[in-house]
């Protein structure tokens, strides 16, 4: 079956710095990947749709200049949280579509201090 | 606009008791339907999915779900709950089986008491 690897699983960063989260499809090619954010005790909210070789499509209310998404290859999408602030602390999860359906990464717990 | 509703924010059941988690969706057409489970601090694990065909689908860990078109529902059930089933459960819909994003319900937190 399809496997999506997300790294890192946990990261703590200082306010004002940037953090990069990677999402890799290990045994399949993913032309489309999705990035979600989950605040404590809440559901997952779609942030953006990442398409290989083109610009990401952001959901309403998500700042594209703050959450930079790059999908340079068919197996890798990255989310960079720029100038992170404590309110960006959240659980970020990626997913990729394949012939097996949707596969989710294990998530990244970001804490901004 | 499309939406996914999980009316029960939190459910508590005794170990061995039956379980039903509700999910309703609002779409113009029949979407693809999913149930996921999330343990604390973990990613999502797919329990089961419905694309077409038999409206009663079987999943992992003894879970099943029934798609009812007339009620726009996709409720999750388990005949006998185990303590390890305590987790957060999310219903989700997608407009296609690949290449499109999910919309998640708000989740139902399940507590299992001995």
Short account of what is shown:
The complex is a heterodimer of chains A (113) and B (114). Chain A is an all-beta fold and 113 residues long.
- Report the β-strand fraction of chain B as a percent range: over 45%
Over the alpha carbons, how many angstroms does the gyration radius of chain B reach? 13 Å
Please provide the count of β strands of chain B: 12
Secondary structure tally, helices of chain A: 0
Distance between the termini of chain B: 41 Å
Mean pLDDT of chain B: 90
The greatest interface between two protein chains, and residues involved on each side, is: A-B, 24 and 21 residues
What is the general shape of chain A?
globular
Q: List segments of chain A where confidence is low: pLDDT < 50 over at least 5 consecutive residues.
A: none
Count of separate DSSP helical elements of chain B: 0
Q: Structural class of the secondary structure composition of chain B?
A: mainly beta
- List SSEs of chain A in N-to-C order: EEEEEEEEEEE
Helix-strand makeup class of chain A: mainly beta
Helix content of chain B: under 10%
**Approximate strand percentage of chain A:** over 45%
Quaternary structure:
heterodimer
Q: What is the succession of H and E elements of chain B?
A: EEEEEEEEEEEE
- Average residue-wise pLDDT of chain A: 91
Percent helix among the residues of chain A? under 10%
- Sketch the major β-sheet of chain B: 6 strands, mixed
**Largest β sheet strand count, sense and barrel closure of chain A:** 7 strands, mixed
């Amino acid at each position: 079956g399809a496997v999506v690897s997300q790294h890192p699983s946990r990261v703590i960063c200082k306010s004002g710095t940037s953090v990069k989260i990677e999402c890799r499809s290990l045994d399949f090619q993913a032309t489309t990947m999705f990035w979600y954010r989950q605040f404590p005790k809440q559901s997952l909210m779609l942030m953006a749709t990442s398409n290989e070789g083109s610009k990401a499509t952001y959901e309403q209310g998500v700042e594209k200049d703050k959450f930079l998404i790059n999908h340079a290859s068919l197996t890798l999408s990255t989310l960079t949280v720029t100038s992170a602030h404590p309110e960006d602390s959240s659980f970020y999860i990626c997913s990729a579509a394949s012939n097996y359906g949707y596969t989710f990464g294990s998530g990244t717990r970001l804490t901004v201090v | 606009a499309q939406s996914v509703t999980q009316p029960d924010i939190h459910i508590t059941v005794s170990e061995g008791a039956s379980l039903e988690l509700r999910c309703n969706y609002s779409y113009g057409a029949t979407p693809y339907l999913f149930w996921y489970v999330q343990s604390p601090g973990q990613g999502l694990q797919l329990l089961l999915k419905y694309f077409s065909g038999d409206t009663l689908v079987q999943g992992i860990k003894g879970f099943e779900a029934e798609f009812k078109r007339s009620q726009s529902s996709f409720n999750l059930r388990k005949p006998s709950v185990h303590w390890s089933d305590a987790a957060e459960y999310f219903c989700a819909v997608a407009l296609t089986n690949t290449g499109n994003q999910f919309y998640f319900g708000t989740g139902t937190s399940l507590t299992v008491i001995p």
